[in-house]
Amino acid sequence: MNRPLVVSTLLVLLATAAGCGSDADESSDSTLTVLGAASLQSTFEEVLGPRFEDSHPGVTIKFSFAGSSDLSAQIDQGAEADVFASADAANMDKIDDQVDNRVDFASNTLQIAVPPDNPASVSAFADLTSPDVNVVVCAPEVPCGAAAVKIEEATGEQIDPVSEEASVTDVLNKVVTGEADAGLVYVTDVQAAGSDVGGAVRGVRRSRQRLPDRDACRQRQRGPGEGLRRPGHQRRGPAGAARRRVRPTIAMAGHSYSGVPRWVYAPAAVGALFIVLPLVAMGTRVRWTEFFSLVSSDASVAALLLSLRTSAASTVLCVVLGVPMALVLARTSFPGQDLLRSLSLLPLVLPPVVGGIALLYTFGRRGLLGDTMEVLGIQIAFSTMAVVLAQTFVALPFLVLSLEGSLRTAGQRYEEVAATLGATPTTVVRRVTVPLVLPGLVAGTVLSFARALGEFGATLTFAGSLQGVTRTLPLEIYLKRESDADAAVALSLVLVVVAVVVVALTRGTRRTA
User: How far apart are CA 13 and CA 197, in angstroms?
Assistant: First the structure.
């Protein structure tokens, strides 16, 4: 892509937006709000924005970058914007009734990106069809994936990728880290990566696609907060009986004393509404007459089954590893214990994508253990095992935290008694400790399963996205948002129902225990 030409074109477009952005005196300070596709961030922030502000004193540009589908949804829900630069026409069409002016201002070309050493010796598009080449592409639901499908149709070559990512940035990252032998990305992405990739293979120049990035501006009103155009009981007993029985509550005036002040119920109700209301709102958006057809596609069913299998496997790993960890933290004392506890609970506060990066540099092809495992013929990245590891990484702290708390609360009196009667430490754990903290263990197990079921960021970063192999239900929902919003909402509701059923069944188990 001719970058100077694009920049100059965008400068003209933003100037037009600024001209229609305010009726106020030109000499007064003003802010231009620009929502742009993530792929435009570097050009907009480093080149376009500074040039425009220099040539328009008093005007400040406020940028917001995300996926085009996310931005169009934000605008549809009332987000303020003067300019919307979408990566494709489809997402612009979603808010067409709120747009006054649409202009195609850029196009791009797909190219093959390879690592610097080009380990698979990729030299042409046909090389990507080899089963020995780990190829990563965008999912067909996103613009770069749709362009890749058109290339396959034009060339007659069919790629069997190891992962279908949610964005072109994710594809490039897999190539840069060496997890993929090749990836289909845009020319501008290859240029931006520089020496991190081994140069673009020219075999797909013939597949040049015009990918319209579009701009929409609307004259800003004098009132604040306006952007794009909007469319239209027990009885009291005898005193003696009260003294003979010790109750957790005290009988007063025919009502049981709960120990909770009345004013607490108001914020408690607000908190409950804060959780429940969004779920109800999502339910109102479901097309119930088409619900079964929306959630019963092959891809959706495969994603749900994969999520259940991998979540169950990761939960087993959490129990096998987490119970010993909790016992050590709760029943022993050693130097550095507090540090170890902090590190073991770190995934609770880490962004999931950071966990995915950490796993990638540990178990990836070029990670800390990657070379050793590759010698043994084991490849974890882009496999179902990678999904299980990602889910275990983020879910394990839930079990450790819950069980350690139960162990500390229960104390060691019964364990000491059992030990004085001759029971071995293993027998004490099996016959006394585990039954004593069983409710906490069950709670931790459920929390781990629920967290694994909803895991998204670490899975996408480390395991990738491939139907039937690594594309879990959260990833399927994310991709459906690009092509079928109704199906995404319906699948989201399925995930909510599954989580509610699991928690409800477990609460029943805890009562029985």
Answer: 32
- Rounded to whole angstroms, how far apart are CA atoms 495 and 473? 8
DSSP 12-41: HHHHHHHHTS--S-TTS-EEEEEEEEGGGH
Distance, C-alpha 508 to centroid of its chain: 30
481-487 contacts: CB < 8 A, separation 24 or more?
481/69, 481/73, 482/69, 482/139, 482/141, 482/142, 483/140, 483/141, 484/294, 486/286, 486/287, 486/290, 486/294, 487/294, 487/295, 487/297, 487/300
404-421 burial, b at 16+ Cβ within 10 Å, e below that, comes to bbbbeebebeebeebeee
Whether residue 301 has pLDDT greater than 50: yes
pTM of the model: 0.71
Helix axes 438-453, 384-410, angle to 10 degrees: 150
Q: What are phi and psi of 34, to 5 degrees?
A: -120, 120
> 239-275: per-residue pLDDT in tens?
444 444 434 443 434 445 456 788 888 999 999 999 8
Structure tokens that stand for 68 in this block: 């085009």
Contact 381, 364 (CB under 8 A): yes
Give dist(CA 143, CA 110) in Å, integer: 11
pLDDT of residue 249: 40
Whose tokens are 């974890």? That residue is 380
Residues in CB range of 67: below 8 A, 6 or more apart: 37, 38, 142, 166, 167
Q: Which amino acid is at 23?
A: D
Q: Do 174 and 91 meet the contact criterion of CB atoms below 8 Å apart?
A: no
